[in-house]
Amino acid sequence: MAGQDGSREPPDRSRTPCNVTPKRDGSGNDHGYNSFPGYNTASPRASDTRPPTKPASARVLAPDLLRGLLMMVMALDHAALALHTWEHGTGRVAEADGQAVLRWNTAAAYAVRTLTHLCGAGFTFLLGMGVVTEGWLTLAMARVGKGWTDDGELAADDDGVTRPLLRARDDIRATAERCAHLSWSIHNVLLAVLSLVTIFWNIWLSDDGGVCAPSREDVSTRSSPSSPLLRVWFWVMMDVQSRVVSGFPPLAWLSFALLGMLYARVTTARPWTRRALVLGPVLGAVCFSILFVLTRVLHLGNLSERCLQTPDQQRRPGQNQYLASAASFLYVVKYPPDVAFFALTMAGNLLLLAMFTAVPPRVARRFGMLLDFGTSALFFYIVHMVVLFGAGTLVVAAWGRETGVADPMDPEKTRGVDNLFGLHRSSGMSTDGVNHHVFTHAGDADRQQATSNAKDTIGYGTKVVGGVSPGKGGRTHLDLPVFGTVKEAVEQVNPHVSAVFVPAPFAARAIIEAIEAEVPVVVSVAEHIPVHDLLRVQEVLRTQSRSRLVGPNCPGVIAPGQCRVGIMPFRQYARGCVGIVSKSGTLSYEAVGATTAAGLGQSLVVAVGGDPMPGTTIVDALRVLFEHEETEGVVVIGEIGGEQELRAAEMIREYRRSTPNPKPVVAMVAGQTAPRGKVMGHAGAVLTPGDVTAAEKARALEDAGAVLVPHPGVMGSTMKALLGR
Fold first, then answer.
1. Which of 322, 371, 384, 400 is the most exposed place for a label (fewest CB within 10 A)?
2. Which parts pass through the membrane (predicted)?
3. pLDDT category of residue 603 using cuts at 50, 70 and 90
């Protein structure tokens, strides 16, 4: 312990050993916690750890509570990464591809994402506090004039660290004072390791080295800002050959530690009241919040703003993308961090510190879990890492290393269960947000039709995770697991799409089973499902909000070059910018051929089916296409029967009225010469007395602003002209 003159005082060996819990007698630090001994001192010396004369305030516990909360958030974040619960970070199909935000447009998701951002900044800030409050490193400070200077070198605290850790002298009894130093040593070692790993990190998780997408190779998440001052602050070390880079620029992250040191110097300079220690961080949080707002208003945000953008930002080329929406305003990145990230995380951590400081002592002591995490951070850090990753070793011993399951972060490789990736098949988000984690649901999963379609779908790149065949659960087919029920499949592989290949008499039962298992998307291709069965399906659909049915009597859904669910002849499809929605599968193929020949390609093709009671209507599909990022123009193909086209016309009219730059719509209605009372191919394609004719539907679409074409062959050239290409 440093004396007032800077010399070492001999340790007091008459105090309580480290393994004895302090008495809870109401004097001093009676709650058994507090690894920040100088934070509540009544002495102007930060290193004076004598018990205060009054009962310990909650401000003693505030840093420990903050560290405990950050430890819990980090553990949950690591669990999400290990189990691949959600896509985030700089990994493949995440921020490095600029598309993860498609899954983050909810308030809860943004809150979770922001909390994970607070961890690295908070740990580094607390490390700065620890340096001043004498923990792992001793930084003796002396007051000179109006400032502080070092009166000694930054050196290891031999008395406080080396001897307690090594137990070199068995005859020395540990004292309460040295116990505090030992606690500080352990925590600051952890914080130092975490900060160094954070500062000198690399983008190994990104198989493209941080580049946005193949079509934008010149845009990298590692780009430096144009401002010379910011370029120094956000200097990124990189070695392109080895791909060892500092995803977190050292100077920018060390600034968190410097702020922690400054904060600790101020708080330990005198015995502040609790109100002052609450208002101080609140004032700091307000200042950083203002800085954050300024970065948004002045357009000083992402260092790679052409790369990491929300969908709303991408709609505002040449404008301030951060003012596009609330999601765009709050979205910040840390690969590498930008000015907005720095301001937002500092504001968040200071607010949390103020909140914990304001908590009354009797209430603060009830946060036992946070305090345990905060004061035993190293122990819990090791434990949660062992639980998440070390447990895989036992699984390897029992079931072997190689599972053949693709590594979620690198699908080109297969990984064993030693890192727990093999225990969870990744959901696989494609680059346009279409999730293609599919299983085949068939009356007999190894029959010719289901097998042939599964082979083609897998070959197209869709991630097929298994099949369902009643009575054949536990088998494998095409190296994929077969389950006896949809519920079992959901529990084991968590699919996002169910492709139902079941004959019409039994299709309704299979569809309802998938809906009750809460599969998000159910695609049914069967034709001639009995009307009574369709009524039961519609009734089940109305009682829930988790599943969407596409079909029946449709070829399915396809995002060309990415995902195919259904029976479409995928070889004629080409990835592009035109979205197509059609009642008729055959006419959708004609539209695909025309747009491919015109050099436009397709972004998303949805065939809603020709039955009278479809699960997804033209209006539903239009709503998706109007919001779809890759779709620049929309083709609508209707036909006789029903009134879907009239409702679609109303939606198109409202969309064009409320949208500044609406996407062009090309439309066609088949059945202009169809006789009344005769079914024309589809069960719903029948013109009965009193029905709206094809000509009336076409007129409604034209009045709404759609451009009518007489046949599919000219759809490509018409759309190309509307897009100005």
1. 400
2. 182-204, 244-264, 276-294, 339-358, 378-399
3. very high
Q: Half-sphere exposure of residue 222, counting CA atoms within 13 Å on the CB side?
A: 21
Q: How far apart are CA 721 and CA 337, in angstroms?
A: 42
C-alpha dihedral, 516 to 519 to 520 to 523, nearest 10°: -100
Query: Token pair of 690, please?
Result: 């009193």
> Could you say which of 117, 384, 436, 682 is catalytic?
682
Alpha-carbon distance 108 to 77, whole Å?
15
Asked if residue 167 has pLDDT above 70, the reply is: no
Element housing 605 (H / E): strand 602-607
Phi, psi values for residue 657, rounded to 5°? -75, -35
Q: Quick count: other Cβ atoms within 10 Å of Cβ 641?
A: 26
First to last CA, the chain: 76
CATH 3.40.50.720 in the chain is located at 433-554
Average pLDDT estimate for 136-151: 31
CA distance 725 to 712: 19
Is 628 in the active site?
Answer: no
In Å, what is the CA distance from 118 to each residue of 95, 309, 345, 507? Answer: 17, 21, 5, 49
CA distance 689 to 216: 55
**Both tokens of residue 556?**
């399915």
Per this entry, what is the length of the chain?
725
> What is the average per-residue pLDDT within 5-18?
41
On the question of a cis peptide bond just before residue 664, with omega within 30 degrees of 0, the verdict is: no
Order of strands, sheet of 556-559, starting from the edge strand that comes earlier in the sequence: 563-566, 556-559, 602-607, 575-582, 633-639, 665-670, 707-708
Q: What is the pLDDT of residue 598?
A: 93
What whole-number distance in Å separates Cα of residue 698 and Cα of residue 649?
A: 9
Q: What is the mean pLDDT of residues 420-447?
A: 39
Q: Residue 705's closest CA among 692, 717, 722?
A: 722
The average confidence (pLDDT) of the chain is 69
pLDDT tens readout for residues 175-231: 445 555 555 566 566 666 665 655 554 433 333 444 444 344 444 445 555 566 666
Does the 433-554 domain belong in CATH 3.40.50.720? yes
User: Tokens 């009241």 appear where?
Assistant: 273
